[in-house]
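As a representative case, we now present a protein record of this kind.
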Amino acid sequence: MKEEILYGINSVIEALRGKRRAFELFVSRDANDRRMEKLLKLAAEKGVPVRSRDKRDIGRLCGSEHHQGLALRLEGFPYSEVADIVSSWRESGESGLILALDGVQDPHNLGALIRSAACAGAHGVIIPKDRAARVTATVEKSAAGAAETIPVAQVTNLALALDELKKVGFWIYGTADSAASPLYGKDLTGNVVVVIGGEGEGVRPLVRKKCDFLVAIPLRGGVSSLNASVAGGVVLFEVLRQRLAVKQ
């Protein structure tokens, strides 16, 4: 069984609330975050032993100084299958929303995108297995615990995964700076897959061909494109805005 070290208050709290088996919680002797009481209560409820450690020892254990005074040793991140995401959507009775990432390599961008997807009510996130960031402790910290609340699937071939989602009723919306259609002119209230490309290259040609629509986020000023995580957030929350407007 693969294990990992997770760190950061929000990440550890959500992990303790989740289904993954946790083995040990390491807490800095001088930790004084007001959320620590809640965290220790969760650890006790789950039967996780708590070990007191020097702050520098925790830093070495995590490989980072941004651990907020604690680290959790637990089983590795459990990826879902695309079929699980589809099942979750069908059971919800809602219009589907899935985020697909085509080669996002920066772990902080991946974490931010997972968090945005969770906050926008997406049913899952799909990432490629190759040439892309995977879910690590850094990603989970950047996601502030959101990776524990939304299914994340790894696929060998993203283009084929998009084909499968089309078959069950999804429309595929890819982002492209050169797209003729502005984002805000599209009806996004149906079953939608939002495709965000990687840093620099954007959505690759093969994946772009699988998109039913290519949309552009209107920009002003001298910069020609947005950061991947910002672009993803803009599109996801435009989907949510439209759906909330329909319900009013």
User: Anything to note?
Assistant: The CA atoms of residues 16 and 42 lie 6 Å apart. The chain has two domains: 3-75, 82-247.
